[in-house]
Amino acid sequence: MIREMLSRLRIIPVLTVSSPEQALAVCEALQAGGIQGVEITLRSDAALDSISRVREAMPDFIVGAGTVKTATDLDSVAERGAAFAVSPGLSDDVVTRALARSTPLLPGVATASELMRGLAAGLDCFKLFPAEAVGGRALLKSLAAPFPEAAFCPTGGVNLDNVSDYLALPNVLCVGGSWMVADDLLAREDWPEVARLSAAAMELAGRV
Ligand code: 3PG
């Protein structure tokens, strides 16, 4: 089920917000640029209320939660109705809780060993994180042969220059990134630029 969602999204903005109002304004700009969903990170106090707010106001926009590091975090985002949860790493507690709650989970992996733990737990979609720092496309190509059952959402260092190359890999369903929702764009409320960068990314995704 998470596979279908990720394949449809193709690009998941990784968004850290300072208020639910800001979250809604950003998500409206993302949607105007053709983006269909977002990961709102638990890196600010506004995250949980922002997840609720965007879900209520934009029912056709997929709202996931990111930086889910503990089973308690997983409970919190599931209770807010997050469509999926993203974790920077692979925590057995988080995986167990996500499976128990039937919350789609995208845990982070950076090595074959972490991937094997995730596969053994019954998962088959993973965030490669931090993608560029741990080997990027070369690592994804290397993992494809021994792990044909695994699919990835590389995140960390993905941008307009390399997004097409990532999306062209057969084991990549989608990518995550913050370049279209960078802090400076949010600080100056440059929603047209958020929409423009989103449209540029989706256009590249459509060409792969
Ligand atoms: C993440 O939290 O997944 C990353 O910080 C996003 O990576 P980026 O900022 O390099 O796009």
Order of helices and strands: HEHEHEHEHEEHEHHEHEHH
End-to-end C-alpha gap? 23 Å
Ligands bound, unique: 3-phosphoglyceric acid
Which structural class should the secondary elements be placed in? alpha/beta
Gyration radius (Cα, Å) is 16 Å
Q: How much of the polypeptide forms β-strand, as a percent range?
A: 15-25%
Low-confidence stretches: none
Q: How would you describe the shape? A: globular
The average pLDDT is 98
Q: Helix content range of the residues, please? A: 40-55%
- Number of helical regions: 11
Spatial ordering of strands, largest sheet? 3-2-1-9
Largest sheet: 4 strands, parallel
How many distinct beta strands? 9
Query: What is the quaternary state of this protein?
Result: single chain
Detailed description of the structure:
With about 210 residues, this protein is of the alpha/beta class. Helix content is about 50%, strand content about 15%. The protein contains 11 helices and 9 strands. The strands form 3 sheets. It has a 4-stranded parallel sheet with strand order 3-2-1-9. The protein has a 3-stranded parallel sheet with strand order 6-7-8. β6, α6 and β7 form a beta-alpha-beta unit. The longest helix has 17 residues. The protein is globular, with a radius of gyration of 16 Å. The protein starts with a helix and ends with a helix. The mean pLDDT is about 100. Bound molecules: 3-phosphoglyceric acid.
